[in-house]
UniProtKB/TrEMBL annotation:
This is Amino acid ABC transporter permease. The lineage of its organism: Bacteria, Bacillati, Actinomycetota, Actinomycetes, Micrococcales. It is found in: Cell membrane. Residues 20-208 form the ABC transmembrane type-1 domain. The chain crosses the membrane at residues 15-44, 65-86, 187-207. Pfam families: BPD_transp_1. It is a multi-pass membrane protein. Belongs to the binding-protein-dependent transport system permease family.
Length: 221
């Protein structure tokens, strides 16, 4: 068997395993934390309190206006200069969570604003407080609108986790880097890593499509 073909076969499972044990957990944890942050920031943006709204607006502007790689470097390489040393994995989670929070906040804010104001009035009419109306009436409807763009955010995050390799986090692309360095077949191994990312995204996109079809019947057009 050709040496290159053998290399592809031998390296395929380690690269996939790097995705299963590194890339996917990193993406899931960061996305989960990021969504919670995004909800808080979105509500701050919608707040009538100018201070809260201003803080949220500044956060979103900074996150959306700076590269993710720079944010990652600031946390992992920058903070130690002022005495805050954070290990690679937590640094990656913090950076990705902050990034997701900044982008997803705008998605959630737009979704909340898409719910007719009459829904708020309906909640007040039956004696609900603002918090109860938001939690029981507004957010469930907003969630159905927000799911498609948030799904795209998650798929993008899965690919963005490859940046964690620059701070030595062991994930899919880091495994590929190690194999490429050992074999000197950089083009071949990196293309294989790209193939694995593509397959993962195909699976996620398929799941996204099914979820959107399931939710579509509940969303007013």
């Amino acid at each position: 068997m050709d040496d290159r073909l053998q290399l592809l076969l031998d390296s395929f499972w380690p690269i996939v395993w790097g995705g299963i044990t590194g890339t996917i957990p990193l993406a899931l944890i960061s996305f989960g934390i990021g969504i919670v942050m995004a909800l808080v920031v979105a509500l701050m943006r919608l707040s009538k309190n100018r201070v809260l709204s201003g803080i949220a607006r500044a956060y979103v502007s900074i996150i959306r206006g700076t590269p993710l790689l720079v944010q990652l470097f600031v946390i992992f390489y920058g903070l130690p200069t002022i005495g805050w040393v954070i290990d690679p994995w937590p640094s990656a989670v913090i950076a990705f969570s902050l990034n997701v929070g900044g982008y997803a906040a705008e998605v959630i804010r737009a979704a909340i604003l898409s719910v007719p104001k009459g829904q708020w009035e309906a909640g007040y009419t039956i004696g609900m407080s603002s918090t109860q109306t938001l939690r029981r009436i507004i957010l469930p409807q907003a969630a159905r609108v927000a799911v498609p763009p948030l799904s795209n955010t998650f798929i993008s995050l899965v690919k963005d986790t490859s940046l964690a390799s620059v701070i030595l986090v062991t994930e899919l692309f880091r495994v590929a880097q190690n194999i490429a360095a050992f074999s000197s077949e950089f083009l071949l191994v990196y293309m294989e890593a790209g193939l694995v990312y593509w397959l993962i995204c195909l699976v996620l996109s398929s799941g996204q499509g099914r979820l959107e079809k399931r939710l579509d019947r509940y969303v007013a057009h």
